[in-house]
Write a structure and sequence with these properties.
Elements (H helix, E strand, L loop, with lengths): L3 H13 L16 H4 L2 E2 L5 E2 L2 E2 L5 E15 L2 E8 L7 E5 L3 E8 L8 E3 L20 E2 L2 E3 L5 E6 L6 H6 L3 E7 L1 H5 L10 E9 L25 E4 L2 E2 L1 E4 L4 E8 L6 E5 L5 E6 L2 E9 L2 E3 L4 E7 L5 E6 L21 E6 L7
Parallel strand pairs: 1-16, 2-6, 4-7, 6-12, 13-17, 16-24
Antiparallel strand pairs: 3-4, 4-5, 7-9, 7-10, 8-11, 11-12, 13-14, 14-15, 17-22, 18-21, 18-23, 19-20, 19-22, 23-24
Length: 344
């Protein structure tokens, strides 16, 4: 767990150089994985929507301010959709006619963009479709694409990075008859699990450090050294002896991930940004750029004790020479614990 003790360590190091710490993160990586990976992975709620008399499937979404406990007893100011940080998984089916009621309860303007959805430009939620505070925007469109994992996020002009960094993002699952017939793992939260991977840097008071200046550390994008998965720092997922499907989103600001399991086991990639692949692809490593999605299937076995880790050889962002520059230091992302598997 990320604890107050890490702040003391940071302060001790900084005082040796007569500098008060202004951010927190790198020192956490000096601890052992056993000390860091103690929080259970959170599974985002699913928003299935409801139908009106015309058969339109309606989703009610509210962008809001919140607080999240990432670091010990510190509360981090956040943004979220229907919650304090991130948003629910929106689940739709091919050919659905949908309406998204997007209420802006923030103290600032924003947008909500349906990333990867095939739709008319006027429904896209880009920078040209600003939602002022207190206003509800209700785009309607039909789902015209095959099964895929997409996402939605703020796309506010000059504020996209900051607002997404603070939590305005979530996943969209598109399902269809083809995917249902493939007998893929599909029990949500059990063997079909979303992984929104992000990296963040925190000030010593627990607030996010985000620098979008054109000349500062974040000029080429922010890279952090605290891994968040579904909004949980360095989480653990208890796994069972089964095939497990992970729908992975690189939700980071600038980092390109080169992911592998710590035992270098093989897994199958079954889908990419555009949906299911024509054939499954066996891999040991998976490379994801910011905003990119992939679906993989991995088999866990008795007593598995493995990590999904970043190899650190996929460059991105602005480097490693200042606050907010996590560089290639971010290694283990999430722990998979099979030591308490139920008997077959």
């Amino acid at each position: 767990m990320v604890t107050r003790r890490h702040f003391i360590k940071a302060a001790t190091t900084a005082l040796a150089g007569a500098i008060l710490p202004v951010y927190f993160g790198r020192q956490v990586l000096a601890d052992t994985p056993e000390e860091r990976f103690v929080r259970p992975l959170a599974i985002p709620p699913v928003l299935d929507g409801y139908s009106n008399s015309k058969g339109t499937v309606i989703f009610d979404l509210e962008m809001q301010h919140g607080e999240q406990n990432f670091i010990d007893d510190s509360l981090t100011p956040t943004m979220g959709i229907n919650g304090d940080y991130l948003g629910p998984v929106i689940r739709v089916s091919r050919d659905d006619h949908v309406r998204m009621n997007v209420r802006n309860s923030l103290r600032e303007a924003s947008t909500l963009h349906w990333h990867g959805v095939h739709l008319p430009a006027e429904m896209d939620g880009g920078p040209h479709q600003v939602i002022a505070p207190g206003i509800t925007w209700s785009p309607e469109f039909q789902i015209r694409q095959p099964a895929s994992t997409l996402w939605y996020h703020s796309h506010m002009l000059h504020q996209t990075g900051r607002q997404v960094y603070h939590g305005l993002a979530g996943l969209i699952y598109v399902e269809d008859e083809v995917s249902a017939a493939l007998q893929l793992p599909d029990t949500y939260g059990v063997d079909d699990i979303p992984l929104v991977i992000q990296d963040r840097v925190f000030h010593a008071d627990g607030s996010f450090l985000y620098d979008n200046s054109t000349m500062g550390p974040g000029a080429r994008g922010m890279m952090g050294d605290v891994a968040l998965v579904n909004g949980v720092p360095f989480p653990t997922l208890k796994v069972q002896r089964r095939r497990t499907r992970f729908r992975i989103l690189n939700g980071s600001n600038a980092r390109i991930y080169n992911l592998e399991f710590s035992d270098q086991r093989r897994f199958l990639q079954i889908a990419s940004d555009g949906g299911l692949l024509r054939r499954r692809v066996p891999l040991r490593r998976l490379r994801l750029a910011p905003g990119e999605r992939a679906e993989i299937v991995v088999v866990f076995d008795w007593d598995d004790d493995v990590y999904l880790r970043n190899l650190g050889d996929a460059p991105g962002g602005a480097g490693t020479d200042g606050p907010g520059m996590g560089g290639d230091e971010l290694a283990e992302i999430i722990h998979f614990d099979g030591t308490e598997m139920a008997g077959a």
